[in-house]
Write a structure and sequence with these properties.
single chain, alpha+beta, two-stranded antiparallel sheet
Length: 346
């Protein structure tokens, strides 16, 4: 739960961060922004906070002895607000020194300090880092003695945050809790913001355990079983359906119980265990064998488990129940067919 309704924007500063490889400058501000106007404060809250309200996926700073420069600056600010201005310059300088790819855009880097924020039922301080990269053109009309003039200006569109993160002063020993957004469509920019600049990783929590295990299961069924077992497409759809049903009908996940209920056959279970181990190692995933199932993660992943059997370009069969009511065969002319049994039509 994230609640900024009583949150206070205590400090705000902006630095201009160019692309170092394109010889665009870094301009560091010596002054905090004045934010004493309530309408301005409301607009800034809308711009900074709205993109994070419905997020349920949290990250933390990568735990490598926390030799992460952003992490170190965040610690300094949370420990003493007097360090805010100095550490924001360090954050902006770090971003500038790492903006060496030609696709990294110039932008204005806003850094904010919030108090009185409710995060997961805890009252905490928060640091926001927001980067505005895209300017919006707008027309400004002025009326002086019934004579109008028009000018073209550029400014920030406050309903479209380009990049941002909120860092909450909780769970410090594990790298804090962090929400991150990036509206970039290019993978280079998205990877840069999370990996190179912030250096954050998904939290080890029930949401990520549920999400990642369902992804492993889907990849195994759709990719690996094609290579190892002579299963029909309808067989694989049944396995996907059983996987989702397990998560729907249980509050807690038990890996061995899942394997027995879903895969059932010892050969497929052993194959899955080998695939699971290799997938986790290759993708650097840590997933507990026992965890509380996250309904939100399940809902998001369920739409990727399509129970559709596509036959050439002529037919789509949606399989939701008993696969035994679907019979596969080949006629004397070599044509493949499916025979469907049912009781009533609607």
């Amino acid at each position: 739960m994230l609640d900024f309704s009583n949150g206070v924007l205590e400090k705000l500063i902006v630095h201009s961060v160019g692309n170092k490889s394109n010889e665009k400058p870094l301009v560091l501000s010596d002054n905090l922004l004045a934010i004493d106007n309530q309408e301005l404060i409301d607009s800034l809250h809308n711009y900074f906070i709205t993109p994070f309200v419905d997020l349920v996926e949290y990250h933390s700073f990568a735990n490598e002895g926390f030799e992460n420069e952003i992490y170190q600056s965040v610690v300094e600010i949370f420990d003493n607000q007097a360090n805010f201005q100095e550490q924001t310059k360090a954050i902006a300088t770090f971003l500038y020194n790492n903006s060496i790819h030609s696709q990294i855009k110039d932008g204005d880097l806003f850094i904010a300090f919030f108090t009185n924020v409710v995060f997961e039922d805890e009252l905490v301080d928060a640091i926001g880092i927001f980067k505005s990269e895209n300017k919006q053109t707008f027309l400004q009309l002025k009326n002086i003695n019934n004579s109008f003039s028009i000018n073209k200006n550029e400014g920030i569109q406050i309903d479209k945050l380009d990049k941002g993160c909120l860092i909450f002063n909780t769970d410090k020993s594990n790298g804090y809790k962090i929400c991150s957004v990036d509206k970039s469509n290019r993978s280079v920019e998205a990877q840069f913001w999370k990996d190179n600049f912030l250096n954050i990783i998904p939290c080890k929590d029930d949401y990520h355990y549920t999400k990642d295990f369902l992804q492993i299961t889907k990849t195994f069924v759709t990719k690996q079983l094609n290579k190892e077992n002579n299963l029909t497409q309808s067989d694989k759809i049944e396995l996907l359906n059983r996987s989702v049903d397990y998560f729907k009908t249980n509050d807690k996940f038990e890996k061995e119980d899942f394997e027995n209920q879903v895969f059932q056959e010892a050969e497929i279970i052993n194959s899955f265990r080998n695939f699971d181990e290799n997938f986790r190692e290759k993708n650097e995933l840590t997933i507990a064998d026992h965890f509380e199932i996250s309904p939100i993660a399940l809902k998001k992943q369920e739409k990727n488990f399509k129970s559709v059997l596509k036959l050439d370009k002529n037919f789509h069969i949606y399989i939701h129940g008993d696969k035994e009511l679907l019979e596969h065969g080949v006629d004397q002319d070599g044509r493949k067919f499916y025979k469907i049994y049912y009781q009533q039509e609607s």
